[in-house]
Design brief:
Distance between the termini: 162 Å
Shape: rod-shaped
Number of helices: 8
CATH architecture of the largest domain: 2-Layer Sandwich
Number of domains: 3
CATH class of the largest domain: Alpha Beta
Helix content: 40-55%
CATH superfamily of the largest domain: Band 7 domain
Strand content: 15-25%
Length: 296
């Protein structure tokens, strides 16, 4: 009988003992609640104890969490509009304040609240600057300003915002086409200017080349005329010297050259009077003393 009654008691004791113990993982933090009130905070990993059946344990992340904001349109100081979104990293630092701020919503509720904080901080900072600064290296300073505001506003949530990064800074879709068209027009104008300058430079080079051709051709023609004149003079001197040494042989040789040139070809014909001086060496067996040929 004792065994029969002892077994339920042992089971009840075991269940009670187990319900009074909880384990906290290294990646978690825990709150012990009693009727919704915080009774114990356990941030270290290991075993914890609570009142069985009365108190409950709620676990929260101890790791760094990430938050991607929704894209938003921001009006800059220069009245330009940009589509901006950001990525933030945060972690829970005060479990009691976090529980009070998020109630039963936990991390999801905290994500929504942090998103609202960033949705207000980003326009507040970027609305006081220009597009050039947002798109330059100065944007790191802007992100630090946004981080400072987000940290201040997130303290009441029991969380610490570790970092904020602007992940997108684009023009709205409605302005992209106009911007691309303006950029295309500017590039086309620059290309037209370059083509015009190139054409002008090519025209100068072409004119210089044409002038050089004319000058070189004129110089070559002048030198050729000089050489031709010198050659003609030398030839005439040789002919005159040959004539002075033997006028008869010179006249005979010139006549034979003239006969050869005029009678060249199978069907050559000459029409002139038979007593012409041209046929003198063909007609007379004796020697003749023709007049000295004119110098060429």
């Amino acid at each position: 009988m004792r065994a029969i009654y002892g077994l339920p008691v042992a089971i009840a004791v075991a269940v009670t003992a187990l319900s009074s113990v909880f384990i906290v993982d290294e990646r978690k933090k825990a709150l012990v609640l009693q009727f919704g009130q915080v009774k114990q905070i356990k941030e270290d990993a290991g075993l914890g104890y609570k009142l069985p059946f009365i108190q409950e344990v709620v676990y929260y992340e101890d790791r760094i969490l990430g938050l991607q904001t929704q894209p938003m349109e921001v009006t800059l100081l220069s009245d330009r509009r940009l589509v901006v979104d950001a990525f933030a990293r945060w972690r829970i630092t005060d479990l009691a304040a976090f529980r009070q701020a998020t109630a039963a919503g936990g991390e999801e509720r905290a994500q929504a609240l942090l998103n609202n904080i960033l949705q207000q901080a980003i326009p507040e900072v970027l609305g006081q600057t220009t597009q050039d600064r947002v798109l330059s290296q100065d944007r790191s300073g802007l992100m630090n300003e946004i981080l400072t505001i987000a940290r201040r506003e997130a303290q009441s949530l029991g969380v610490q915002v570790i970092d904020v990064r602007l992940t997108r800074t684009d023009l709205p879709e409605a302005n992209l086409a106009a911007t691309f068209s303006r950029m295309r027009s500017e590039r086309e104008r620059e290309a037209a200017d370059e083509i015009a300058r190139g054409g002008e430079a090519a025209q100068r080079v072409r004119a210089a080349a044409d002038r050089t051709v004319v000058e070189e051709t004129s110089l070559a023609r002048s030198q050729a005329e000089m050489i031709r004149g010198e050659a003609d003079a030398e030839r005439n001197a040789i002919l005159a010297d040959a004539y002075s040494k033997d006028a008869e042989f010179f006249a005979f040789s010139r006549s034979l050259s003239a006969y050869e040139a005029s009678l060249k070809g199978p069907n050559s014909s000459i029409v002139m009077q038979p007593d012409s001086d041209f046929f003198e060496y063909l007609r007379s067996p004796g020697l003749s003393t023709p007049a000295a040929p004119a110098a060429e």
